[in-house]
Amino acid sequence: MLRTLSVALYMTLVASCSAMLFSSPLQASEAVTIEWTDLMPEEDLKALQQMPEVQHDYSQPSPFDDNYQGDDPAAKQWQQILKSAKVVEKYNNTKIRVPGFIVPLEFDSEQNVTSFFLVPYFGACIHVPPPPPNQMIFVSGAKNLKADMIYSPFWISGTLTTEVMTHDLGQAAYSLKADSVEEYTY
């Protein structure tokens, strides 16, 4: 599946979702409103932006396989970016507000989502490989978030930490204790 996700597509997904989510006026809040690229250290963002186009030669081993031993420099750089858990320390223990999509991890007995990964674009972790750890936030403490609401984007506010959380669906380099979860309206 990763073979079909090029760098340009990844950047387009992140940029498109960020533009869509930031298109309405922001509400006043004590939390700092951030974009997903704010969570990516400058060296990771620069490497992603300068990465050459990946060649898709399906007759050869995939450069996106974990055990890839080839010499495609773009594939090696892409693997490093996809695995990067480097964080932006200035956001550690900061109250933030960030838009994103929910990938449920735990539910309560009434099918409310109680913990989830927040990701920058719809379908991350489900249809394609997960975003890099520094582009995923593990969120706990959500209230009244019904399982059937996960197809909509949300504003999530709370205290962000640089605490890593690993799950079968992916690894998040950031964690957030939710103060509020608001459905995003266009």
TrEMBL record:
InterPro entries the record matches: DUF3299
UniProt KW Chloroplast keyword: no
Domain of life: Bacteria
Keywords carried by this UniProt record: Signal
Signal sequence extent: 1-28
Keyword Transmembrane found: no
The protein's name: DUF3299 domain-containing protein
